Amino acid sequence: MIGHIHRFLIGRPLRSEEAAGERLPKWKALSIFSSDALSSIGYGPEQIVVTLVYSGLLVYGYFGYASLAVVALLAIVTLSYAQVARANPGGGGSYSIAMHNLGERWALIAAAALFADYVLTVAVSISSGTQALVSAFPELIGKEITIDLVILFGILMLVNLRGIRESSNVFVWPTYFFIGGILLMIGTGVYHALTGTAPLIAEQSLVRQQADWAVVILALRAFANGCSSMTGVEAISNGVPMFHKPEVSNAIKTTYLMSALLGIMILGISFLFMHYHLLPLENVTMMSQLAEEVFGRGWGYYYIQITTMLILYLAANTSYNGLPPLLSIMARDSYVPRYLGAKGERLGYSNGILLLSLISGVLIVVFHGNVEHLISLYAIGVFLSFTIAQASLVVKWTREREKGWMSRTAINGFGACITGIVVMIIAVTKFFHGAWLVMVFIPAMIYTFKKIHQHYLNTAEQLYLSPEDFAEHLAAGPVKSLTIVPVSGITKVLAESLRYAQSMGGDVIALHIYTDEQERIKFEEKWKNFHLGIEMHVVYSPYRSIVQPVLSYVSELEMHKSIYDYITIVIPEFEPKKWWHRFLHNQTGWILRTLLILRENVVVSTLPYHFKR
Amino acid sequence: MIGHIHRFLIGRPLRSEEAAGERLPKWKALSIFSSDALSSIGYGPEQIVVTLVYSGLLVYGYFGYASLAVVALLAIVTLSYAQVARANPGGGGSYSIAMHNLGERWALIAAAALFADYVLTVAVSISSGTQALVSAFPELIGKEITIDLVILFGILMLVNLRGIRESSNVFVWPTYFFIGGILLMIGTGVYHALTGTAPLIAEQSLVRQQADWAVVILALRAFANGCSSMTGVEAISNGVPMFHKPEVSNAIKTTYLMSALLGIMILGISFLFMHYHLLPLENVTMMSQLAEEVFGRGWGYYYIQITTMLILYLAANTSYNGLPPLLSIMARDSYVPRYLGAKGERLGYSNGILLLSLISGVLIVVFHGNVEHLISLYAIGVFLSFTIAQASLVVKWTREREKGWMSRTAINGFGACITGIVVMIIAVTKFFHGAWLVMVFIPAMIYTFKKIHQHYLNTAEQLYLSPEDFAEHLAAGPVKSLTIVPVSGITKVLAESLRYAQSMGGDVIALHIYTDEQERIKFEEKWKNFHLGIEMHVVYSPYRSIVQPVLSYVSELEMHKSIYDYITIVIPEFEPKKWWHRFLHNQTGWILRTLLILRENVVVSTLPYHFKR
C-alpha cells in the first residue's frame, strides 16, 4: 500500500545507467538558471522602500540612489562571475573553488554561507510567490503559510524526488512569460509617464533630510536590503557543464544577457515605483500595486501576478538544483553525513532534497512566511559566498599567471573588495535585524562540519586493518563463545533454539527467570525430567520483569571478564499468521534485543518461528 | 532522564513480597465501594428530567413515578446482590459467576457488558464531576474537556499506576463529606418545603397528557435514563474478600446501608426538584440549581458542589479497581492479550490501567464530555451484567440445592426477570439514542474474545512438544547453517565478523554489493590479495540500494530450498562514542535487520562494535 503511493508519487526506480548528461541550448539554459536572479525583482525593490518608509525617511529622495547603487553592484558582480565561469568549466560553486585555492577554512565558510543562501532562497521565494498570489486574490489572506507548505512539500519536494529531467521543460516557459510581461509593463508604464500630464516625479517626494550618521546608516541599510534584488546571479557559473559547446563562452554570454535583463528590470520598476509614488501595504505587494496602476485590474494585471508567482516558485526550485549536489560533494569530503551523498532511486540526491525541504519548511513556519524578516537573513550569506568565490579566483590567477592574469586579477579583486564591503555593510546595518543570527549560524555550521570530518577520520582510522593484520586476526582461531538461551516454557521453539545454540560450537546455558518460588521448583523438576544435558540457570525477578534480570545476568558475566570473547543470546522471534496476532504477544523479545544490541561483546541472534495458523 | 520522571511520577518498583492483603472495616469499605453508586445521584435524577423535558411532556407529572420506580428497582437489585455476596465470598463479578454457572457464552456477554460499564463509568463520572465544578465556577465553561483529560490522565491514571494502597485513605473522607452534605441539603430543603408558604408542588406541574403509546415510550425512556442512578450497587459484592471477618455478613450489611442511603437520596432529591420546579439548564447542573435554592450561593452551595465533584471523580476511580483485575482474570483464561494480566512494577495491572484510561479518554473526546449522550450507552451494560449475574445464581442455587435454596432462587429469579425487563426497556426505548451502539459493540467484543482465545489455543498447540519429541529434536544433531557476512570495506569489523562467522561451524560466504563495474573489479582484486580462503559473491545493484540486493540474494537461497536449515546473517552494529555520531552513519544495518528478521529460516546475528572515540 505505502509502496504503491510511493511509486505513484515518486515514480519507478531508475537504473544507474539511465543517468543522463543532457546539454541545454542557451535559450533554455537562460530560463532555467535565471529564474532565481530575475525573480528577485519580485521582492528586491520593495525591500528598499520598506526600509526607507519604516525608518521615517521620505522615501523617494533616497530610493533612486539605492537602486542605482544596486545596479552598479550588479554590473561588477556580473563581470566577476563571468570569470568564475571561465575558471570552473567543470561547474561547482564557491565551496569547490575555495577548497582548491584558499583551503579548508574558507571553503567551509563558503559552504555554510551557501547553505544559508539555498535554504533562504526557498523560504523567501515561496513566501514572495504566495504574496504575489494573495495580492491578486485577497480571499486567500490568512492562508499564506498553508499555501507555502503545499507548494514546498506537495510540489517542489515531490517533483525533485521524481528527478529533475522530467520537469526541466516545465521550467522554460514561465520565465519567458514573466520576462515578456514585466518588460511590457515597464514599457507601458514609462510611455504613460512620458506622455501623461502628471509630473514625472512629484516635488515633495524629493525632499531629503540633512545628512547625519543615522541617515547614512539608514540609506546603507536600504542599499543592503536592495542587494537581495541580485541574489541568484551566480547560478549560471555553477552550471557551465550543462551548456552546449563551447560551454564557457555560451555561459558567459548567457550571464551577460541575464544581468542586462535584471538591470533593466530593476531600473524600470524603480522608476515606476517613484513615478506612481507607491508605498508598501499589508497583504498587497508593490509589484501588484504597480501592475494595477499600469494595466488596471484586468487581464494584464492577473498575467503579471501569476507569472510573478510562478517564477518565484521556480526560483525556489533552483535551490534544489544547488544544495543537494553541494551536499553530495561535501559528503564525499566527509564534512556532512555520508548518506547526503547517496543517489536515491530516481538518481536525485533524495536525502539532500528532504533536508532542504524540511529546513525551509521550518523557516517558513517560524517566520510566518514574512518576506521582510527572512530577507534580513538572506543577503549576507549570498554576498559572503560571492566574496569568497572571487577572492579564491584572485589567488588562482596570481598563482597560475596564465595569459591575461593581470586583468582577471583586477576584475575579481575589485569584485571581491566591493562584495566584501557589501557584506560588512549588511552585517553592520542589519545586525539587529537578523544578520547576527547568520553570524552565529555560520561559525556553528563550520564547527559542525569539522566535528563530522574528525569523526569520519577517527572512524576510518579505528576500522583500518592492513592485509597482514587482517590475516593474523582471522588466524587467531575461532572465537570463544557462550550461548545463552532464555527459557520460559518448554516448547518447539525452545527445542529449535537449543539445537541452534548447540551447533554454534561454544558452551550453552539455558536461563530461566522466575517470579515465584513454587513455580521455580516445578520448572526445575520438569527441566530435569527432559534430560537435556544442558545447564539451566535460574534468576529471581522480584519486580516481575523479564527483561531486567536478563540484562543484569549478562552484565554480571561481562563484568567478571569471562573467558569468552562473545556472549551470544538466542532470542526467538515469532512471525504470526495474521497481522493482529502480533498484539496478542508481549514484546519482551523485541525489547531484549533492542537493549542487548548496545552491549559490548554481546551478539544477539534472532531465530525466527513462523506460526502456521 | 525519562527514567527519573517515570520514577518521580510512578514511584520505585515494588517487590512481589510487598503485595498486601489489607482488610477493611465496614465504615471504610462503605466509603470506598459506594462512591460509584452514591455519586450516581449527581446525574441520575437530572437524566429523568432531561428526557421528559426534551420530549415535550410536562415534567413533574411523570417525574415522581419514574423516581419511585427507580427506587423500587434499587430495592430488588439490592436484595439480589446480597445473594451475590453470599454466593461469591471469593469476589469476582458477573464474569466469574457466569463462567462457573452458565458457561462461556454468557460469561463473555457479561465480560463485554462489564467492559462497557467500566469504561463508561469513567467517562460519565469524570464528565459529571467536571459539570459540577463548572456549574459553581462558570468561568471554566469551555474548558471542560481539558479538565476531564487532566483528571483522567494526570490524576486517576497516575494514582492507579502508583498502586491503590497509598491512595485508599484518600478515598474515605470525601464520600462521608458528600453523604453529610446531601443529607443536610435534603433535610433543609424538606424543612423549608413543609414550613414555607408556597404550595408543596404547584398545580400546573401535575398536568399530564392523555396516555398513548408515545407517552408510554417516553415515560419508559425516562425510567431507563433514571436507572443510571443505581449504577455501581454491585461494587460491594465484588469486593467481599476485602472485608473484616465475617466477610459475607459484613458485606451484606454494608450493601443494605449503601442502598438505603442511595434510596433516601434519590427520593429526597427528586422531591426537591419537583418542589422547586427545577428544569435542566445548559452549563448548570440541576443539583447545582437545587443547592443554590436551598443554601443560596454561599458556603453551603460550594460545599455541595465540591463534594459532588470529588465523589464523582472517586466513582471514576472505582473502575480502576474493577476493570484491570477483570482483564487479568480474562487474560489468565486467554480471552484478552496475556500482558493485560501482568502486574506492573508497582503491583498494579499497569497495562489494564493504561487501556482503561485510553478508551475513556477517547470516549470523553468523541462525546465532547456530554453526560447526556454518554448515559445513553451506559445503563444497558450495567443492567445486562446485573441480569447475567443473577441468572447465574439461579442456576447455581437450583443445582446445589443447599439449605434455603428455594427462597434464594426466588429472590434472584425475580431480580433477574426485573433487570432483564429493564435491559429490554432500555434497548427499545433508547435504541436510537446510542443503545444500538452497545448492541453492536457487545457481539463484536465477544467475537474478538473468541478469536483471541482461539489464537492462544492454536499457539499452544503448535508449540507443544512432548518430552520424547523434545529429546529427539535435540538429538537430530547440529543444524546445517550457511553464514553470510555482508562486506562493504575491508575493516577491523569485517575481520571480527568473519572470525565470528567461521567459528559458528557452518559454511561462510562474504557478500559484496556493487553499483559500479570498475569498483567491483578493484574490490575483487583487493579481496584476492587478502588470501582469506573465504568465498566472496558479488551482486550488482542497479538502483544503488544495498538492502534490496541482499534481500533478493537471501530470497533466492531460500527458494532453491538449499541444503541448509538456517541462513545466518552477521550484521555489525556500531555503537558510537557520542550520541550524535549515530546520525552520521546510515541505517543500512538496522533496516537489513528489521527486514530479515521476518524471514523464515533466516537467523540475524548482530555483532557489536564499540567505537573508542
Automatic annotation (TrEMBL), chains A, B:
It comes from the Bacteria. It comes from Anaerospora hongkongensis. Pfam families: AA_permease_2 (PF13520). GO terms for cellular component: membrane. GO terms for molecular function: transmembrane transporter activity. The chain crosses the membrane at residues 62-85, 106-128, 140-159, 171-193, 213-236, 256-279, 299-316, 347-369, 375-397, 409-427, 433-449. This is Amino acid transporter. Its main location: membrane. It is a multi-pass membrane protein. Keywords: Membrane, Transmembrane, Transmembrane helix. The keyword Cytoplasm does not apply. InterPro entries: AA/rel_permease1 (IPR002293), APC_K+_Transporter (IPR053153). It is found in: Membrane.
